[in-house]
Amino acid sequence: xxxxxxxxxRARLASLGLVVGELRSRAASTGPARPFAAALxxxxxxxxxxxxxxxxxxxxxxxxxxxxxxxxxxxxxGAAAISVLTEPDxxxxxxxxxxxxxxxxxxxxxxxxxxxxxxxxxxxRAAGADAILLIVAALGDADLARLLQEAHAAGVAALVExxxxxxxxxxxxxxxxxxxxxxxxxxxxxxxxATAERVAAALPERATLxxxxxxxxxxxxxxxxxxxxxxxxxxxxLVRSGDPARLxxxxxxxxx
Length: 256
What we know:
This protein is of the alpha/beta class. The chain has helices at residues 2-16, 20-28, 36-40, 67-76, 88-91, 95-104, 118-126, 141-154, 165-174, 194-199, 218-226, 236-240, 244-254, and strands at residues 46-51, 54-55, 59-60, 81-85, 109-112, 131-135, 157-162, 178-182, 208-212, 231-234.
């Protein structure tokens, strides 16, 4: 499933190359990024709450989701940061959601997308992103290192996502200090919390660690906290919840 998503992303990149100068100028005028990594390093298990309309694995989740209203509920519940999916073809996201959410809340916001080229880093920053996602499975070592450098130049944090011990080693070798372990297999889209528990052993103690996908309740949050994670990224469970603020509070309490 990853391959067609990346192909779709590359098709959109063609037009972005024409406006890279404009994106850099807009990014320079957005002001400093909010401290994403520091928000995750606060005491206790932190929650990155995600704005997510649909996905290849779950199908439609909430196609009429009000991104601003949902983000405000997340903030009220004690989320440390907001994740906004901006990939349009498979996840129903948009940069408009990112812009609107960033303006509506005081929390740091991460652009969740398939970042393959430096121009996307500047595009995200110009839209207000305080952090970007880099997926090791989608990048070669040289590209990963280059994108980490570009994120630093743009003044945004980079959450480097891994799925295996080998990818974890590659992330560390590239200089990543903010590392997410995705419990979802990108080939099958199945989730297994044992993935994050297993890969944790390959991650350095000095890194800030995020467990992504598969956490839907207090039991899962407690497992990720026990495995050494500083934060969890939760999307589908929060979007489907009738009271996301209460769920966030429960997840944080279970991991403390």
